[in-house]
Design goal:
Blueprint lengths: L2 H40 L3 H37 L2 H7 L4 H43 L2 H4 L5 E3 L4 E8 L5 E8 L5 E15 L2 E15 L4 E13 L19 H5 L5 H5 L1 H13 L3 H13 L10 H25 L6 H9 L1 H10 L20
Helix pairs in contact: 1-2, 1-4, 2-4, 2-9, 2-10, 4-9, 8-10, 8-11, 9-10, 9-12, 10-11
């Protein structure tokens, strides 16, 4: 790679990173709003929120990167044109192929990165994300214990907490427990803390009394204690078994689905996810060629190339929308699978033909006719 190619490649990489970070940040913020609601409802801490937010990145990063390449090529080559750098490079003998080489190299690297994200990192992060979400939703012990109210934990357990200190200590606790048939237990304690040992939520209460009424005997037993542990299994919700979504499956699991009834029922979704992972990363190459075909052929103008940039941007959006639509249709009509690869790869030969056709090797000179003199 010569010095000019390195210069172009460096500018393209910087622009791609800036655009990708900006788009990812915007999408990440929208995703984070849903995660905040989940974490607040589940009573989890900031560390869990941050973990969930990081795990959500690979899911959409493979979609953002190709647009980062498209925007970077349009911005970089338009800027070089306005500053006459691209005109000088063409005048020095650099043809469309030489000018396109750094772009194609960047697009190839991004495509490989998208394959890595869509085939390995994305599904692994999605599995961990869903697992962590399930854990937050199932463990509601902290969130449901609101201070100053009687917390109904089902039909048989009521807990009252007057106040919750910043360190998690509960003050003035009342627990009314009727989970054991024929037995009513009431615990009053000065303070306590919530713990989760071996997957079982418990409240450790201090300095209190316990009254236990047995309906069969009609007797009430009293107990004073300094420290007492009460299991709160009612606070942990047991979620039903969940079908593994196609987006969290490995490539091997998509290629050879299980023979159970659910996989057979949703075989179309599994097939669509498989071909989407194989085809979508190639959009980085197609977007790059679309941008090159819009800016490099024809005459250069220092006044800007707004029309060409708009056509390339709209073309990229239309192509992405078409790919998403075809992916959804593949689940219902398997015969459209070939159309997906055709849509993704079609811009490559068309764009390369526009770059390599005769007359694109050097810039055209524009003749200017002098204006007539006043006396002529």
């Amino acid at each position: 790679m010569n010095q000019i190619n390195r210069y172009l490649f460096r500018n393209l990489v910087v622009a791609t990173l800036v655009v990708t970070v900006a788009l990812s940040a915007a999408i990440w913020l929208t995703q984070s709003l849903r995660l905040v609601e989940l974490v607040v409802d589940g009573g989890a801490g900031f560390g869990v929120f941050l973990h969930l937010a990081v795990l959500s990145l690979p899911t959409f990063l493979s979609l953002v990167l190709p647009f980062g390449v498209l925007a970077a090529v349009l911005f970089t080559y338009n800027k070089l044109t306005q500053e006459s750098e691209l005109v000088v490079m063409r005048a020095a003998g650099l043809g469309p192929v030489a000018l396109a080489r750094p772009v194609l190299l960047l697009a190839a690297i991004v495509s490989l990165l998208c394959y890595l994200l869509s085939m390995y990192l994305g599904p692994a992060a999605q599995r961990e994300l869903i697992s962590l979400r399930q854990s937050v939703r199932s463990d509601m012990s902290v969130a449901l214990l609101r201070e100053g109210t009687f917390n109904e934990m089902g039909d048989d357990l009521t807990i009252y907490v007057r106040d919750r200190l910043p360190d998690g200590t509960l003050q003035d606790i009342l627990i009314h427990d009727q989970r054991q048939e024929g037995v009513t237990t009431t615990v009053v304690a000065a303070s306590g803390t919530l713990t989760d040992s071996d997957g079982v939520p418990r409240v450790l209460v201090n300095d209190g009394t316990q009254s236990k009424y047995t309906a069969a005997t009609g007797k009430t037993e009293w107990l004073e204690f300094e420290r007492y542990a009460i299991d709160l299994l009612t606070l942990r919700r047991e979620l039903p078994a969940r079908w593994t979504e196609p987006r969290e499956r490995t490539m091997a699991e998509l290629w050879t689905p299980r023979n159970d009834a659910t996989d057979q029922r949703f075989s179309g979704r599994i097939r669509a996810e498989l071909h989407n992972r194989l085809a979508s990363p190639l959009l980085a190459l197609s977007f790059a060629v679309i941008a090159l075909a819009a800016l490099l052929p024809g005459e250069f103008s220092r006044r800007g190339q707004t029309r060409r940039i708009t056509i390339a941007a709209v073309g990229g959006l239309v192509l992405q929308a078409a790919v998403l639509g075809i992916v959804n249709l593949i689940g219902k009509v398997p015969a459209l699978t070939a159309l997906l690869y055709l849509a993704v790869l079609a811009p490559l030969p068309i764009g390369l033909w526009l770059l390599l056709r005769p007359g694109q090797g050097r810039p055209r000179a524009t003749a200017h006719t002098p204006a007539p003199s006043p006396g002529g």
